[in-house]
Design brief:
This protein folds into 5 domains: about 140 residues, Jelly Rolls; about 120 residues, Immunoglobulins (Immunoglobulin-like), CATH 2.60.40; about 240 residues, Alpha-Beta Barrel (TIM Barrel); about 80 residues, Immunoglobulin-like; about 110 residues, Immunoglobulin-like. Helices cover about 10% and strands about 35% of the residues. The strands form 11 sheets. It has an 8-stranded parallel barrel, surrounded by 4 helices. It has a 6-stranded antiparallel beta sheet with strand order 3-2-4-9-6-7, with no helix packed on it. Strand 46 and strand 47 form a beta hairpin. Helix 3 packs parallel to helix 4. The relative contact order is 0.09. The chain binds beta-D-galactopyranose (GAL). Beta-D-galactopyranose (GAL) binds next to loops.
């Protein structure tokens, strides 16, 4: 068996497939699905003889919630989509006769939620927490040389999440076969306890499992360098001698450890994500029985209370975002290319770190982070025993917290991208007298599986509610309240601090409301939020307050902005949810929150996705993107003006103009006339011309840095909508049935200038070996199905997501048309897999 979960990614991301990969194969194809319970007694869906031919045929990963329909009466907090309830998945397969002498496992990377698994009518396992990966042993009830029926029942409880969780087997599923003597599930742990410039000590711990009769076992390990695509390059760089022969009893596990010296190691870092692979060979009585590949990186990670993150001896400020797991219009169903696109867009903004809120991500997310160079804080839970929703993790905590936490750390501890483990987010036990004991207990579980990384958590009451709970973890995470940084640091100068969740600024791409106000509660209309980036809910702020908090307190390790992308659910400030009211300890604040919520519940709110994203749900950049880019990539010459310049109803009226730039000085011109030159002060993060009187034409900013010309931006008044312009993010695709092209349509005037406020309906068609899987426009209030081939532009843009067909190479043509406008076409090339 080769456990190389992270090398078996979907094509389209340039991953290699191991020669022994047949021992761990994708088990995603050809499932049958039904929503609800089949007729008959409880558990009827598991009966091998059940006729499931009429059930829907599909391939995993699958999220039944995203199929909709959206309903106005569903709660916006979880996306107004039907993700809850019972569903069944069945797969019939023939097991080769040779399986009689092998161990056969089913690995499910994630099923939402409360999954139970049967093989041939016998219950063989399951796992309730939808974000955990788990293994089920099929060996005992497998029929080698015959037909077998696998059945999985999902029972996703309503009222169990504060965001859209998705429903179903929404991540990859694998069939794993091994000799009786093999490496246990997630049974390797590679660490680099001593790292010096010219040499690293690589320790490899291997847990062996023996499901056969007693035998003597031995392991040996070799280390190779990996290229950017995860392929081995060149010969072994280090090779251990075989371990001493050790007896493993029948049905027992043993732990073997090896230590290797790696000369001239290249360090892993976001800038240079160099990786290695430890290849561990297991033999029993002279015969090789298993071989496991464990990709890893050589890097040192430390936190200094006075400076923050020290990576490979150098200070690295954390420029991070929080991310929920959904992929917008694709829902929770894992797609590697969709994830990769999110990360590419974030990387271009200057993001170097991600907090996986508030749960373990798909394994492929961590493989991408390793390969692309992101630092990860992996978070386990949004709630412990007290819970935040009636049916959430609070129901599972007592029985499952230890299993879930161990499952997370054991699955992921070899990833160089992971720098810390978070045991929770805004946990309600923060306020309980005995809460700190739970925090200490959870942090201890993490440390018992991995002593090489620190623990953290996101706290919403660090200073105001300080009771010792906060320091049960190693690094204290502040959710908001940057003004409290100095108070905490003064009282605990030895404890590292990070902004685990910051800003929560809200905005809708392309919407601007007047008059512009710095009061953060303003800028709301039509269930949209103004994009002047000054609006935020009560507990939150504009980005600049957080920037100042960091700049004034350089001991803080950096920030994780809430959030990188918009996500399904939690459409604050139009979220009729009481969670945030519950979190208030101050009775006056709670009363205020409850009043707001009562007001909101009187109106019919259409909103179904968040406004927090720096990037919208469709992956289009909001203005804020450039505010962060200016800060995080100061070396990139860049200028971005807002708002757009199409205000026929505002001629002669004050229309403030703001500029985000990496320069330090700029002059603004309206139709060639200077409106003044402004300089950025030490704590100014944007330049503002707040008294500009609108006249149509061209608004231009000329930016300087240290007195020299640096960048320019122009926004122009556009004419009437006349045509469509199409751009594909990638046109060379793999014919693997997974690869995607994200095709953007922009509405332009006849000169090709974008028409910013246009909302023309666009119809997409796809011909050739591809299919239209979803459309979107980033409008948080749209209840149009994501599968609809027709999509109105939202402020000038719409998106079509096109997928290749497996095994069908050729040209795919995407056509966009709209009444009264000239249409457009783009051609994609789907190539056969090598
Ligand atoms: C935080 C919470 C997040 C999200 C955010 C919205 O308090 O941790 O999950 O709800 O607020 O601002």
């Amino acid at each position: 068996m080769r456990l190389i979960p992270h090398l078996l990614l979907a094509a389209g991301v340039g991953m290699s497939v191991s020669a022994h990969a047949a021992d761990r194969v994708s088990f995603n194809a050809d499932w049958r699905f039904m929503k609800g319970e089949p007729a008959g007694a409880a558990g009827a869906g598991a009966a091998p003889g059940l006729d499931d031919k009429a059930w829907r045929k599909l391939d995993l990963p699958h999220d039944f919630g995203i199929e909709g329909p959206f309903k106005q009466e569903y709660e916006g907090e979880t996306g107004k989509l039907p993700w809850w309830g019972v569903a069944w998945y069945r797969k019939t397969f023939t097991a080769p006769a040779g399986d009689a002498v092998r161990q056969v496992y089913l690995d499910i990377d994630g099923a939402m939620s409360h999954a139970t698994v049967w093989l041939n009518g016998e219950q063989v396992g399951g796992w309730p927490y939808g974000y955990s990966s788990f293994r089920v042993d099929l060996s005992k009830h497998l029929k080698p040389g015959a037909e077998n029926v696998l059945a999985v029942r999902i029972d996703n409880p309503p009222d169990s999440s504060r965001w859209y969780p998705g429903g179903g087997i929404y991540r990859n599923v694998w069939l794993v076969k091994a000799a009786p003597l093999h490496v246990a599930h997630n049974g390797t742990f590679v660490t680099t306890p001593i790292v010096k410039a010219g040499e690293a000590t690589v320790d490899v711990q291997v847990t062996l499992e023996n499901s056969g009769g007693a035998t003597a076992a031995q392991v040996s390990t070799a280390i190779y360098a990996l290229d950017a695509a995860g392929r081995r390059t060149g010969p072994a760089l280090a090779q251990s001698s075989p371990s001493a022969l050790t007896k493993v009893g029948a049905g027992r596990q043993i732990l073997l450890a090896q230590s290797l010296q790696l000369a001239q190691p290249k360090f892993w870092s976001p800038a240079k994500p160099q990786r290695y692979v430890a290849v561990t060979t297991v033999s029993g009585e002279g015969k090789v029985t298993d071989e496991v590949e464990t990709p890893f990186g050589v890097r040192t990670v430390a936190f200094e209370a006075g400076r923050g993150l020290i990576l490979n001896g150098e200070h690295v400020p954390i420029q991070g975002v929080c991310m929920h797991h959904d992929l917008g219009a694709l829902g929770a169903a894992l797609n590697v290319r969709a994830l990769e696109r999110q990360l590419e867009i974030l990387r271009d903004m200057g993001v170097n770190a991600i907090r996986t809120t508030h749960n373990p991500p798909a394994p492929e997310m961590l493989e991408l982070a390793d390969r692309m160079g992101f630092l990860i804080v992996e978070e386990a839970f949004d709630a412990w025993r007290l819970g935040k929703k009636k049916n959430d993790y609070g129901r599972l905590y007592d029985e499952w917290h230890e299993k879930d936490l161990r499952a997370m750390v054991k699955r992921d501890r070899n990833h160089p991208s992971i720098i810390m483990w978070s045991i929770g987010n805004e946990i309600r036990e923060q306020g309980e007298p005995e809460g700190w004991k739970m925090a200490a207990h959870l942090a201890d579980i993490v440390r018992s599986e991995d002593r090489t990384r620190l623990t953290t958590a996101g706290f919403n009451h660090v200073v105001s509610g300080y009771n010792g709970f906060q320091t049960a973890v190693d690094v204290v995470g502040f959710n908001y309240k940057p003004w409290e940084y100095p108070t905490f640091h003064k009282s605990a100068p030895h404890i590292p601090v990070i902004g685990s969740e910051t800003a929560s600024t809200v905005s809708s791409r392309g919407e601007y409301f007047f008059p512009v106000s710095d009061d953060k509660s303003k800028g709301l209309a039509n269930f949209q939020v103004s994009s002047y980036d000054l609006s935020a809910p009560r507990w939150a702020s504009a980005p600049e307050l957080e920037f100042k908090g960091l700049d004034d307190n350089p001991f803080v390790a950096g920030e994780f902005v809430w959030t990188g992308f918009d996500y399904l659910g939690e459409p604050t400030p139009y979220n009729a949810d009481s969670t945030n009211a519950l979190n208030f300890t101050d009775p006056a604040a709670r009363a205020r929150a409850e009043k707001e919520l009562a007001e909101l519940s009187k109106v019919k709110v259409p909103s179904r996705s968040s406004y927090f994203g720096i990037v919208d749900l469709a992956g289009f950049k909001k203005d804020r993107y450039y505010l962060y880019q200016a800060r995080w990539r100061p070396e990139l010459p860049m200028a971005h003006l807002l708002p757009h310049w199409n205000w026929p109803e505002r001629v002669g009226q004050v229309t403030p103009v703001h500029l985000y730039t990496s320069g330090d000085e700029a002059e603004l011109f309206l139709n060639g006339k200077s409106l003044g030159r402004k300089q950025r002060g030490a704590r100014d993060y944007r330049l503002r011309w707040d008294d500009v009187v609108y006249q149509p034409g061209a608004l231009k900013a000329v930016v300087y840095k240290q007195g020299k010309p640096w960048a320019e931006d122009t926004v122009q008044t556009a004419g009437k909508a006349a045509r469509l312009a199409l751009t594909a993010d990638r046109s060379a695709l793999q014919a693997d049935g997974k690869d995607l092209s994200f095709v953007t349509v922009a509405i332009t005037d006849k000169e090709g200038r974008p028409v910013p406020r246009s909302s023309n309906a666009v119809r997409f068609t796809v011909s050739g070996p591809g299919e239209l899987v979803a459309t979107d426009n980033g409008d948080a209030t749209s209840l149009v199905s994501f599968q609809s081939p027709e999509r109105a532009a939202f402020n000038g843009l719409a998106l079509a997501i096109v997928r290749t067909r497996a095994g069908q190479a050729g040209a795919i043509t995407v056509t966009a048309s709209s009444d009264g406008l000239a249409g457009a076409k783009v051609t994609l090339n789907s190539k056969a897999q090598p």
